[in-house]
Known about the structure:
Layout (H helix, E strand, L loop, with lengths): L17 E6 L5 E6 L6 E6 L6 H5 L3 H7 L1 E5 L17 H15 L7 E6 L1 H12 L6 E5 L14 E7 L11 H10 L4 E6 L7 H12 L1
Parallel strand pairs: 3-4, 3-5, 5-6, 6-7, 7-8
Antiparallel strand pairs: 1-2, 2-4
Helix pairs in contact: 2-6
Amino acid sequence: MDLKARPRKVTSSSLRRGTSRVPLNNGRQGILVVPDGKVSGLVIALHGAGGRPAAAARLFDQVADRVGLVILAPASTGTTWAMLRPGPDPDTPALDTALDRLFQAHPFDPARVAIAGFSDGASYALSLGLANGDLFPKVVAFSPGFEAADRHQGRPAFFITHGTRDEVLPISRTSRRLVPALRQNGYDVIYQEFDGAHAVPREFAIEAADWIVR
């Protein structure tokens, strides 16, 4: 679960504006979305079980241009992220390689590099964020199920939302346990519950994007 890629000092940006495909060394393809204007930050957007990179990118696409947010949305090898299942994990090394290439292409501000996800993607984001808090100072989890970090490193801050009528990942067994545990361990957590099901209300995606680049 150790990610070695880190932002670096590069003299100029070679990012191509717009949306492009990103080959991953887990045999899949991700999506990179670069805003037209000034780049303020980077978010890794992780899809849920059975989802696709495009769905993860859409979490922030309507606000990314306004706040200058680059979106990297990788793809899992199987129906969900390998780290969440028993057996080998080709997805985390694939993300690490894609991140390293991205950090070679642009001088990202280390304080504005975040990881985010929905559902299983949120569980993966929590796990990677806790294990790599020196890389991800901010972690966004929309309707997470659990965290499975093999270590805790750094002091990331968290932005978590969950619907009170979520029947896929019921809130009483998930966020209402995760959030108190994070706070008990000294982490800064913004937590919002909403009257809804297993979804990401648009206003929370906008709020999260603003929080990432703040």
